[in-house]
Every structure is written in C-alpha cells, then in structure tokens.
User: What shape does this take?
Amino acid sequence: MIFFRKNSLLAVLLLHAFSLLGSAAAAGLARGHRRDVLPGPKGCDVFSGSWVRDDGSTTATEAYTGFRCPIIDPQFNCQLYGRPDTDYLRYRWKPASCELPRFDGLDFLTRMKGKTVMFVGDSLGRDQWESLVCLLHAAAPQSPSQLVSADPLYTYKFMEYELVVSFHREPYLVDIDVMQGKRVLMLDDIAENAEAWRGADVLSFNSGHWWTHTGTLQGWDYMGEGGQYSEDMDRMVAFQRGMTTWANWVDLNVDPAKTRVFFQSMSPTHYSSKEWPNPVSKNCYGETVPTAGLNSTAPPTGQEQVIKSVLQGMKSPVRLLDITALSAMRKDAHPSVYSGDYSSAQRANPAGSADCSHWCLPGLPDTWNQLFYTLLFYQ
Assistant: This one.
C-alpha cells in the first residue's frame, strides 16, 4: 500500500537543534569528501550490477542517521522506531562495468547553487526527496535552512546556497477536479498541477502505484476525458492516457536547455516471500540482507510498460531513473513494522501489517540519489 503522511510542524522547530547535533559528524564527512570519477565508458549502464557489502568505507546511507535529519517522516524512520539491525545500511550498489561516483553533498550544493530541484509524484517520490534533503543537510549541517510545508507542496531551502529542493504531492500527475462534490480524475488535463513545476531547473517525476488502487485507497470517484465521464475503465488504459497528457505537457512547456527532466521507474514491493529464496517470514519482515547475485530484469508490470512506452515516444529528453530491478533485490530495506505510523498491535502482527512498499531512511533511496547525482553530473 502506498500512502502519504504530512510533515509535522515540529520538524520546523527542530531544524536548528538537529543541525547542532549533526555538525561534528558531518564536518568529518565534509573533510573526507573527494571527487570520484566514473571509470570506463561514459555510457556505462549504472543500473545493471549487484549489491556488495562494504564495511570499510562510508556509504551514502551512512551520511546521516534517523536521529539527525530534520525531515524524515515517521513511516520511513526505521532507526527511530526500533529497527534493531543495521546490516541493511552496509551495502553499496556496484554497476557491472564501472564504479559510481560517491555522492558529494557539498559538490551538489555548489553546482546547484541558485537552482530549484523538484520531485513530483507519490510517497516513493517523497522517500527520495527526504533522502536528498538529508544527504545535503548532512554535508552542511550548520548552513541556514528553512522548511515550508503547505500540502501538496513541501519546500526545503538551503539559504546559503539559494538552493530549493521541493516535493509536490501529486500521485496521478494529472489534475483532480471536484464536480458536484465528486472527485474527477482528469485524464486529459494537467494545467493546474503543472503551474507549480514551471521554472524548476530539475524535475523528477514518478507515478503508477495509485492508478491501481481501489476501494478506500482510490483517490477519485470518476474519470474524465474529453467532456465524458466514467466510473471506471481499464486502469492501464487510464494510466497510459494520463501519462500521455503529462508527456505532452513536458514536450510543449519544458526547455531542455534550461530544465533537466527525470522519471523514476516503479519501486517494487516485497509482500510475498515466495519471490525470493530462503525467506524468514511471509513478507519482508525479518529480512536483513539483499538478494545475492546480479540483478535481472523480471517481466515488466503494466505500469512499467506504460512508462517506457510513453517516454520512448517523447520529443523531450527524459532520463529514466531505472531503480526497479536493483531495488527488487532489497527485500531487507523496507520499514516492515518499524514505522512511526504503526500501533503496538500492528507491530505485533507483521504478517498482516508490515510495510513492504516504502523504504527506510537512511537506506535504499540514498542509493537512488547517488544514481540521480551520477546522471546529473557524470552522464
């Protein structure tokens, strides 16, 4: 299940306190920063490879903790809510034919000074947004910052660098209008949502999970297109039409010379332990290590087929942040029952309650941002 939780206003009040707590550790990290290069051909497939244990160097996931980043939502903060193991933080992604540059927060802040980076989508996009803010905050913990939360737009400003890193919560990307008290998912209209995206220097989108929700999780009452309305339709057909509306907006409104555009591929879930060898429970609960070996491409889901088809038909250059296969190996990296959203009864029932959709922070989304950093500056 993919869901969303608002930031507490307490996060704003705690920014300064967290900054002071993190200053000493992050200062050491800053002194140790170095600019790695990407050996081999520039066109290395950074999404094909394996997870390797690395106890000897600082990985991206060790740049901060759940206690020292000011914006981690309770649903992602596994450390704060009692996850006892730490091995899931000891793995780094190793492409098959090259090395990734280490994520350098100070380098990112400097290169992106005066710019706006915006994530748009659902809670998996939020997972990556919070990770990026945490990585950058760890690199400059005493640098003045400001968090502005005004649902559906959440903005973190690094004042010294004039850098804005935002998250716009729009899980369908296209507009939802209210007509006669009913929510109408407008498959052919994106104009209202897209106003918030204008002027951004980097846009990273994701969508897909919410298009299959039904019942109480469904975010709309009707679908609308071309003045016609229906109570439902084939969800992948609807997703294709909504994605095409998004793609048309990008092609018509985004100047590739001024704005880089990314699309995050589908983030996998781990609710059935039949999908991997030697499971320890019915789902991701209790898993502490990744699946071994090289990642392989499983048959694409309907959403993945739609995303790749739409991107291939676009005029604008959009980079796919293809995190699906590498994330599918990380059955160990979900919050499971270690979520601040859970009651004691839910924590006592991992078979029925474990969150095997989202990802712990620190954790896997830090690697997504290492890949994001690589695509931005090295490829």
